[in-house]
Amino acid sequence: MAEKFVVPEADAAGRFGEFGGRFVPETLMAPVEELTKAYAKARADASFRRELHHLLTTYAGRPTPLTEAKRLSEELGARILLKREDLLHTGAHKINNALGQVLLAKRMGKSRVIAETGAGQHGVATATAAALLGIPCVVYMGSVDVERQALNVYRMRLLGTKVVPVDSGSKTLKDAINEAMRDWVASYADTHYVLGSALGPHPYPRMVRDFHAVIGREARAQARKLLGGLPDLVVACVGGGSNAIGLFHAFLPEREVELVGVEAGGRSSAPGEHAARFGPGRVGVLHGTRTLLLADDDGQVLPTHSVSAGLDYPAVGPEHANLAALGRTRYESVTDDEALAAFHALSEKEGIIPALESAHAVAWVLREAPKRRGGTILLGLSGRGDKDVPTVARLEGAAGVAL
Amino acid sequence: MSRIGRAFSRAARDGRAALVVFVEAGDPSLEVTERLLPALAAAGADVIELGVPFSDPIADGPAIQRASERGLAAGASLSAVLDLVARSRASGLDVPLVLFGYANPVLSMGEAVFAARAAAAGVDGALVTDLPPEEGAAFAATLKAARLDPVFLLAPTSPPKRAKTVGRLSRGFVYVVSRAGVTGVRADVPSGLEELVGRVRDGVGRLPVAVGFGISTPAQVAAVSCLADGVVVGSAVVLSMEDAVRGGADPVEAAAALVRALAAATSR
């Protein structure tokens, strides 16, 4: 038995090794400190944990099943298990964190929540939690994403949330975060900012991870029951990295379980054409945290591209950056085209239409599984693809495929 | 005493607050900025905060966001801004200059390289918005070692004991954010400002206190001048230049005219 990996926790300053921290304007220091204290108190409070557990099990649909992907396994020669976060209410893992944070906002006495969204999944999850718990919600969304995820915009509006398109910068996820932070700087007194990934200033990376760690705890127990042991390999897509860190965490101590995050390789490896941070990324500061970042020689953040809005982000959560530096996790990328092919493959072979984000993890497994004959691969299916059907239809229509 | 310290002392001796003027480097071009700096000094700016454009300016409202985008389009990288400062000093510019920006360009250049290049170029101080004391203490020490003044922010949300920490780390002056929110033009002066400035003074000792965020008119400058050692005006100057460019007028003239009006309002 290999020696256990000692999982590094964020220190008091929110550092995971050299990553993390709190790089925010002075005005936000008191609000993030207030949040840190409130979260520490809630985490230690059994009634908070019970209330969240109750919502996750009676409202969101936890636990999610572990599904054997039998036809794919047969074809590829490795046993593939799918952790089905796509079956959760609102269609993705994001609801785990949204319920946790909106519940916390209520405990903190806040009367309004705000959020950013890329693909729209976190926006929909926050809008849903806000509707459930009766608190007004505003979601910032890059205008490019508003266009390509029109269905989710309408969904948020149905839920009673105000969606504000963001026209600055690259008009995508990073600009939506900029705008949400600008709102929060002025509104912190009555507003909680429900940040949607395991990034941003301390305590967000740790708090968001904690709310998603249920994914890995369930998956580990389910795998043990099914396999009598642990999988050889655990794979998840990584944008900011919330579903991946949630899935990985329960497996971190066991070094024999290989952990792989899959990033968006986009159209090519040229700057601006992808969102793969672990190759060309350098250590930098964006949105309150020090982490791996796609930036140019002058320190300006580079534009990114991915067919999947949820992975279209230039930085990665600091805990991922630290785990990679320690050699415990590693990161691979797949292209838009590979993700699209995987989107079809999982649909046709297993009857599951994956989110384009999750399709990146599927694509890497399709590439890797033949090299792992007889092995077991646990794949985090972070969300379902209903929201992406119009995008894929449009893309393939343009490529001459009949609809 | 540093050039910044001397500027505040001189203003105090004259019975007025120091006027600190923010402009974005490269807005709308580096050539305009080079003409702008001496014009602002001549119009009555005691200190100039020269904004270094960044792709993701989370502390800034729309006016400075647009200026930042124009600056980036004009090639105002941190390196280009330092070169611009060196050229301006070589042609005799004497006004104190504080670089004002975000962490990533500075960290990307390397803190020590930045400090050495900034000092050689003739920069007097630096304020990095997203480097609060917790993350910026080492940077402050690096700046001081290069004879540059680190400037930190205090906000209405800062607990009283932070003023002490910021006072210890800062040199030249401390920058008090007058209200919660991003930069931008506002109509009023926040009501709790006098108390806020008083609280800051208790913590920072004899370091000059400058107040900014939302101050744009001579009337607001006059009101703040009675409370603080310095008044910072940014978005209003940036907007005056934007309007001038849009109307086909000279942005340098427009900014100088506004600064003259603001400078006349600093007397106590």
Structure in a nutshell:
Chain A is an alpha/beta fold. Chain A contains 14 helices and 14 strands.
Description of the structure:
The complex is a heterodimer of chains A (403) and B (268). By secondary structure, chain A is α/β, with parallel strands linked by helices. Chain A contains 14 helices and 14 strands. Chain A has a six-stranded mixed sheet with strand order 3-4-14-9-10-13, with helices on both faces. In chain A, strands 1-2-12-11 form a four-stranded antiparallel sheet. The longest helix of chain A has 24 residues, at 204-227. Chain A starts with 14 loop residues before the first strand and ends in a 5-residue tail after the last helix. Chain B has helices spanning 3-13, 30-43, 62-73, 78-90, 103-109, 111-121, 133-145, 160-169, 193-204, 218-225, 235-246, 251-263; strands spanning 18-24, 47-51, 97-101, 125-128, 149-150, 153-154, 174-177, 209-212, 230-233. With 268 residues, chain B is α/β, with parallel strands linked by helices. The radius of gyration of chain B is 17 Å and the shape is globular. Chain B has a nine-stranded parallel sheet. The longest helix of chain B is centred in the first third of the chain and has 14 residues, at 30-43. Chain B has one domain: Aldolase class I (TIM Barrel, Alpha-Beta Barrel). At the A-B interface, strand 2, helix 1, helix 8 and strand 11 of A face helix 3, helix 5 and strand 6 of B.
